[in-house]
Specification:
Number of strands: 32
Number of helices: 10
Radius of gyration: 28 Å
Strand content: 25-35%
Structural class: alpha+beta
Helix content: 10-25%
Length: 668
């Protein structure tokens, strides 16, 4: 199974800088023609749009948009126009009285849309296995909450236009606030959100409905989308979670949806096995189809695309009537009483000849805790679920136990295993709960890497991660000074199996677990974890105190190149100084970012209230220490303190490395 390729419906093309100099003035307004030959439709990108009381209108073949005024629909001077039919758009700008003669905006890009989606050369007779929404009249009202999404995204740095499906979501106070639910893999950046245009009630209205499935490759976009359908242009991101945590995004549309659409209610409870479901969606940007099915009987404990989609975050839905495919992504999974229970993440390569279709949906119960305050559903005060300590380590024969969750009444939470060998129950609930069960299956791994890390997560407004280290079967002493009874032996031996070690232990065949770790040794530990010995680093020293003869030279060079370190001063690294717990936190979190394919200094969100009494927000390592706590990498040196300036032993570093760069890595 693979995530379906999103349909490519257009590309983004640059417009010349001198374009606005071609505008004509007729004494009351400026007029400009923008053409993209061969396009079925256009969208124009406006930047620096600050027109005060002026008015901007755009017209095309049978379609028009505007007027736009002030700072544009997103109030920041940057927006994409609605879809304009045809390959030519006429832009008319009427300045306010007394305005300067300059045109106060730019049009740097045009979205060029094709007559029909570009797809891989796959089966084209899919109309036979799609179920038209109009054949299920009981679903018509609920389907009014579903919209076709058109937005700009990028692949390998190249912008293009694609489609997904999303659903208007109700809040608990029925305020009519335009909250819109879709998938993270559809929209995950502010740029994608601001380019979004949603189209409502795009349905089959008879033979005149343009739909390329039916063989009508006339322009599906201008006739149906640009001219006749009600639409909303622009959105902002409120919350998004990656595919490894359920693949959900909640948006706030820039304007209210058209009158008469329904705001979908949602289900705060787990979907039972064999529960009937329905999904209204727009395959390939076509008009609404419906897929009916049920939660698959083999759903629990079944892996979903290995580490990237742990099964606890997803439902497997057996599609029995109708199929989903590219463009359907992000559609809501509905119960038979029309409550949102999930969002479509991915499914099989579509073939009508295959009767065993399985769709994979992110569980709404695991996204709800993240967005409950946005749905006006939070309990008074912060909604944070905390857990009691979990006994460690787990024996090779397997086992488990229970833990308690403390949370305010009405605060929703979810529990999810991030590994297949760990299971938890119940998966979701609200308020305090005692006796949540976790179970770890037997481990038959081969020594010395037989020790097995794993995690499960407790999700409320923030995520809390619990780390479990399971012992392996049998084994010998790997290091002379690390007996199998040593509290850090599983982690130290696990690292040895991956050749993660560092210079500096005076004892032959030893690890020196009680010795302080130097900054140079820390660099070797981290880079060996990320790359082993297979990496290239610059040969000219970055730091004045790290010569090419230093045992950690290559590793420190690579740390600098990955932006994991900037040194202890502008010109030095201090390789022989002990690494403090604060420095260690910064190194590990930046290395985890790199491990997961991000920049070492990529931003991340944290709780602003300090977890530790000795680490205030003014501390330069504050954000990294907060993240260490939230990811379960550390619980502090005491119940209330972190000991930010204390040195870190080599044994402690082994535990931190396994938790941060093995257990939490999305590329493990």
């Amino acid at each position: 199974m693979a995530q379906p390729a999103r349909p490519v419906v257009g590309d983004t093309r640059p417009l010349p800088d001198h374009l606005l100099r071609q505008a004509l003035w007729d004494g009351s307004k400026w007029s400009l023609e923008v053409r993209s030959p061969g396009a079925a439709a256009l969208r124009l990108h406006f930047t620096g749009f600050h027109v005060g009381g002026g008015l901007l209108r755009i017209t095309g073949t049978g379609s028009a948009a505007g007027p736009f005024t002030q700072d544009g629909p997103l109030s920041d001077g940057d927006f994409w126009s609605p879809l304009i039919a045809g390959d030519t758009a006429i832009v008319e700008y009427e300045p306010s009285p007394g305005a300067s003669g300059e045109i106060p905006f730019r049009i740097p890009q045009v979205g060029h849309f094709y007559p029909a989606p570009l797809r891989k050369d796959r089966e084209r007779g899919l109309v036979a296995c799609h179920a038209d929404l109009t054949t299920q009249p009981a679903w018509l009202a609920a389907a009014s909450s579903v919209a076709l999404m058109l937005f700009e995204t990028t692949y390998m740095g190249i912008p293009y236009w694609t489609v997904c499906t999303g659903t208007l979501l109700a809040d608990t106070n029925h305020t009519g606030r335009p909250l819109f639910l879709t998938a993270h893999h559809c929209i995950q950046t502010d740029e994608e959100a601001r380019s979004l245009e949603t189209y409502w009630n795009f349905r089959n209205t008879g033979p005149s409905t343009l739909d390329y499935y039916s063989g009508n490759f006339g322009s599906w976009i201008p006739a149906s989308l640009a001219s006749t359908l009600q639409k909303v242009t622009g959105a902002t991101i409120l919350k998004t979670t990656s595919e490894s945590e359920g693949d959900g995004t909640l948006l706030l549309l820039a304007a209210n949806p058209p009158p008469g659409v329904m705001f979908a209610a949602w289900n705060p409870r787990e979907l039972p096995l064999a529960a009937p479901t329905g999904t209204v969606h727009h395959p390939d940007g076509s008009f609404q189809r419906i897929t009916l099915g049920q939660r698959a009987a083999n759903d629990p404990g079944t892996n979903v695309e290995a580490r990237f989609r742990p099964s606890d975050y997803y439902y497997k839905i057996s599609e029995q009537v109708g199929l989903t495919e590219g463009g359907s992504s992000g559609a809501a999974l509905l119960t038979n009483d029309f409550l949102v229970s999930g969002t479509l993440s991915y499914g099989p390569e579509v073939s009508c000849a295959d009767p065993n279709h399985i769709g994979i949906y992110g569980r709404f119960t695991h996204f709800l805790p993240r967005i409950q305050s946005l749905l006006n559903f939070a309990s008074p005060g912060p909604c944070m679920a905390e857990i009691t300590a979990v006994n460690q380590p787990i024996p090779a024969t397997g086992g488990g136990g229970t833990f308690n969750i403390s949370a305010p009444p009405g605060c929703y939470w979810a529990v999810a295993s991030d590994y297949n060998h760990i299971s938890v129950a119940p998966n979701a609930g609200s308020g305090p709960r005692n006796g949540v069960i976790f179970t770890v299956s037997p481990n038959s791994g081969t020594f010395p890497t037989s020790a097995r890390p794993g995690t499960f997560s407790v999700i409320s407004e923030e995520r809390r991660v619990v780390h479990l280290m399971q012992e392996g079967t049998g084994g010998n002493i790997v290091y002379a000074d690390v007996p199998l009874t040593h509290p850090f032996a599983p982690e130290i031996n696990f690292l040895k199996g991956y050749n993660v070690q560092a210079y500096g232990c005076a004892l032959p065949s030893g690890f020196c677990p009680e010795s302080a770790t130097t900054r140079g040794q820390m660099a070797e530990f981290i880079i060996r974890t990320l790359y082993g010995d297979n990496f290239i680093a610059a040969g000219s020293p970055y730091f004045a105190d790290v010569a090419t003869t230093h045992p950690a030279f290559r590793f420190i060079q690579k740390m600098k190149e990955l932006d994991i370190t900037g040194g202890c001063t502008l010109t030095t690294y201090c390789p022989d100084d002990p690494v403090t717990r604060g420095q260690m936190a910064a190194f590990l979190i930046r290395a985890l970012q790199v491990r997961n394919g991000l920049d070492g200094r990529a931003p991340f969100s944290i709780m602003q209230a300090p977890y530790f009494t000795d680490t205030s927000p003014s501390n330069i390592f504050f954000s990294y220490i907060q993240e260490m706590k939230e990811l379960g990498i550390t619980s502090g040196c005491t119940a209330t303190a972190y000991c930010v300036n204390d040195p870190t032993t080599r044994g402690q570093i082994a535990v931190f490395l396994v938790r941060a760069l093995f257990a939490l890595s999305e590329n493990r």
